[in-house]
Design goal:
The chain is of the alpha+beta class. The chain has helices at 26-31, 70-77, 110-120, 125-139, 154-167, 184-199, 211-217, 235-244, 393-396; strands at residues 3-19, 39-55, 59-63, 85-90, 94-97, 172-175, 203-207, 220-225, 228-234, 258-260, 268-277, 280-281, 284-286, 291-299, 303-304, 307-313, 319-324, 334-335, 339-346, 354-363, 368-381, 405-409. The termini are far apart.
């Protein structure tokens, strides 16, 4: 008996109703209340024949676009939603953190909800007593313990729910993207606790769009698309495959290494952004490769020293790098052409492996002109530099760059 979870041929169907005819006002709807209306029904398969096993102490990441079936899978595994067909075999207590407030009663106090959740998981009061102080300390809700949960903010509910799930030590933890509700500090705290959980030999199923967190916590990843498994295997193999499709939710455009922006009514604006390595557009960079950013702009005025600045954030949203050509003494003087291209090239991209996001700013010495927030998401992966196949960590673990090349050309010459 090597599996704590067995999923066999799991499918889930939803029935969608389509009403024909134009949009109706409330008055029209009341008038037609007793009239027959034409409607059609459509079957939507959120999951279709999904099968996999989870071993004892294994951490599994589940990734995919919005609508891929990730949340439906976890709800079926948590017995919140019944499957249309298939079977789930669970061998151990399961704690699910799927939505803010899931499993909590709004009329009960925070203290009462801790004990209520523990009893639902089959724990004795003594077991809950032994862990109660740790739960409260982690959640940071001491002052509100005897306040009904309905008066908690969503962040407070999330902190308490996570603490209950983590400290009451279920054999299986099922966690959806709900952690995104918390602030960056709390997310890091949760991820640290999840690392402790995995090291303690408990099982985790983790749905997230934070690919760095999935790769760090989960040795194996399952990629879902349209309710079916596209691929499963080691996270370090599956996640790059997924990213290369540009399929990260809400980031399909952001992942493009060559973006064009619509014209707006501004005196100057960013027209296009390019992100390149070794002369090729890419969203995957090896340690030590170059990064080149090209900012194409349009302007209807003379610019006093055009500036480009970039800010690079890690997967936790912490800014790790900031550059602009002013700080590197690369001023271009007065620029009176109506268009141009500012370039920045970092010869060696010496960030550690992980997932990063870039903001790009366009300005002059006297004014901010345009900004594209979170406009590019990219991954840094290891590259073997030594003959033995090991990266030269001593040389390539820096996050500071001295040798950065800047340039400004007109669009015609570019």
């Amino acid at each position: 008996m090597s599996s704590i979870l067995e999923i066999r041929g799991l499918s889930k169907k939803f029935r969608i109703n389509h009403e024909s005819g134009p949009y109706l006002t409330v008055r029209d709807s009341l008038r037609n209340l007793f009239k027959s209306t034409k409607s059609s029904k459509e079957d939507f398969w959120a999951l279709r024949d999904v099968s996999f096993n989870v071993g004892y102490g294994e951490s599994i990441g589940v990734i995919g676009r919005n609508g891929a079936g990730k949340s439906t899978l976890l709800k079926v595994l948590s017995r919140i939603t019944p499957p249309t067909s298939g079977q789930v075999i669970t061998r151990g207590r399961m704690a699910s953190l799927l939505e803010v407030g899931t499993g909590f009663h709004p009329e009960l106090t925070g203290r009462e909800n801790v004990y209520f959740n523990g009893s639902v998981m089959g724990m004795k009061r003594k077991e809950i007593d032994d862990r109660f102080d740790e739960i409260v300390e982690f959640a940071g809700t001491e002052k509100f313990l005897d306040t009904p949960l309905k008066h908690y903010s969503s962040g407070m509910q999330l902190r308490l729910a996570f603490a209950v799930s983590a400290f009451l030590e279920p054999e299986i933890m099922v966690i959806d993207e709900v952690l995104a509700v918390g602030d960056a500090k709390f997310q890091r705290k949760c991820l640290g606790k999840m690392e402790d959980v995995t090291k303690s030999g408990r099982t985790i199923l983790f749905v997230s769009h934070n690919m760095a967190a999935v790769e760090n916590l989960c040795a194996r990843t399952i990629w879902l698309e349209s309710g079916t498994i596209v691929a499963e295997g080691p996270s370090k193999e599956i996640i790059p495959m997924y990213l290369k499709t540009g399929a990260v939710d809400g980031q399909e455009q952001n992942n493009s290494a060559d973006q064009t922006f619509a014209q707006v009514d501004k005196p100057a604006q960013i027209d296009r952004l390019e992100f390149l390595t070794r002369g090729q557009h890419s969203q995957v960079f090896y340690m030590g490769n170059d990064l080149e950013v090209r900012l194409h702009f349009r302007s209807n005025m003379t610019l006093d020293n055009p500036l480009m600045g970039i800010i690079v954030y890690d997967s936790a949203g912490t800014p790790v790098l900031f550059f602009n050509n002013k700080n590197y003494d690369a001023l271009f003087g007065k620029y009176d052409r109506r268009s141009g291209v500012i370039t920045m090239q970092i010869p060696e991209l010496n960030l550690m492996p992980g997932f990063y996001t870039i903001d790009v700013h366009f300005a002059s010495l006297v004014a901010d002109l345009d900004v594209k927030k979170s406009c590019f998401n990219f991954q840094i992966i290891y590259q073997s530099f030594a003959l033995a196949g090991e990266p030269l960590i001593e040389k390539y673990n820096r996050v500071f760059y001295k040798d950065i090349r800047w340039g400004l050309t007109s669009k015609e010459s570019a």
